[in-house]
Design a protein that fits this description.
mitochondrion inner membrane; 292 residues; Mitochondrial carrier fold; mainly alpha; 11 helices; transmembrane helix; Mito_NAD+_Carrier; MCP_transmembrane
């Protein structure tokens, strides 16, 4: 079949979008690196709350007693993970979005407004496959109970490498997959509509993008999916044999949490603060770059 004028226009749009991917990778990675270094102490405080069910003051007291040098123990895996995440996230999503558009637009299978959310599901799957090992190493390093037996990053890598994938680097893969696919679907599905609504209220583009990232990540993603993050931390922090997802959740809910929702959400306020900063910056930078 011959190519019409519309095909040439689509090729031009695709080439233009491809040229914007590289700057988006660079700025996404840079913003993620800066936000990770800035908010890591907050994350570590949340981690201790999730792991030991302590209040904020107790978690901060633990970190103070350990000293400043140990405050950033475990920062390398999240730094790599978040920088790679910020670099790849939007590029992967755009790739899926272009593929879905070319497949579904002629047939009208999926509404155009739903395509970003559907592409977000695929993005979340890739995230889970790539970044679960980073999260696993990070959680082992940040668990103070592993300091003596696994004092260095190299010792952690050696220990996890000796295990089967399901109990080593990919422990808790199922809840991570659920959390990432749902989170990416919500984020990409709501990001542009929320930002557009804020711009209609008179906010500048950068401010609307920043607030869009803050609101979506904190209220629409982190609060509903926070229990999955708590489960992941408790499944991944140890290196001994662990139960499966159902057994781990039962032990956590009935044992450590004593069937208490407030205990389950302990540390949630700090998650919101950290997420607001991280995703507000990332969203604002990406939207600014993609507008040029």
């Amino acid at each position: 079949m011959g190519r019409g004028p519309g095909d040439n226009h689509e090729d031009q749009v695709l080439r233009k979008n491809t040229m914007t991917w590289l700057p988006s990778f660079l700025h996404g990675g840079t913003s993620s690196l800066v936000s990770t270094l800035t908010t890591f102490p907050i994350y570590k405080t949340v981690f201790r709350q999730q792991l030991h069910s302590t209040v904020v003051s107790q978690a901060i007291g633990q970190l103070r007693k350990e000293g400043f040098l140990k405050l950033y123990r475990g920062v390398v895996p999240p730094l790599l993970m978040k920088t790679l995440n910020g670099t790849l996230l939007f590029g992967i999503h755009d790739t899926f979005l272009h593929c879905l558009s070319s497949i579904t637009n002629p047939c009208g299978i999926i509404p155009l407004s739903a395509l970003p959310a559907v592409a977000g599901l695929g993005t979340g799957m890739v995230e889970a496959l790539v970044f679960t090992p980073f999260e696993r190493v990070q959680n082992v390093l940040q668990n103070g109970g592993n300091d003596r037996s696994l004092p260095t990053l190299r010792s952690v890598l050696a220990r996890l490498g000796a295990e089967r994938l399901g109990s080593g680097y990919y422990r808790a893969f199922i809840p991570i997959l659920a959390r990432n696919t749902l989170g990416s679907c919500i984020y990409f599905g709501l990001k542009d509509p929320v930002s557009a609504a804020l711009r209609e209220m008179g906010l500048p583009p950068m401010a609307s993008s920043f607030l869009s990232g803050m609101v979506i990540s904190s209220m629409a993603i982190n609060l509903p999916l926070y229990p999955l993050s708590v489960l992941v931390v408790n499944m991944q922090a140890g290196v001994s044999e662990a139960a499966g997802v159902r057994g781990s959740w039962k032990a956590l809910w009935e044992g450590q949490l004593k069937r208490s929702v407030p205990l389950l959400y302990r540390g949630g306020s700090l998650v919101i603060i950290r997420s607001c900063i991280s995703w507000g910056i990332t969203t604002a930078i990406y939207d600014r770059r993609s507008a040029h």
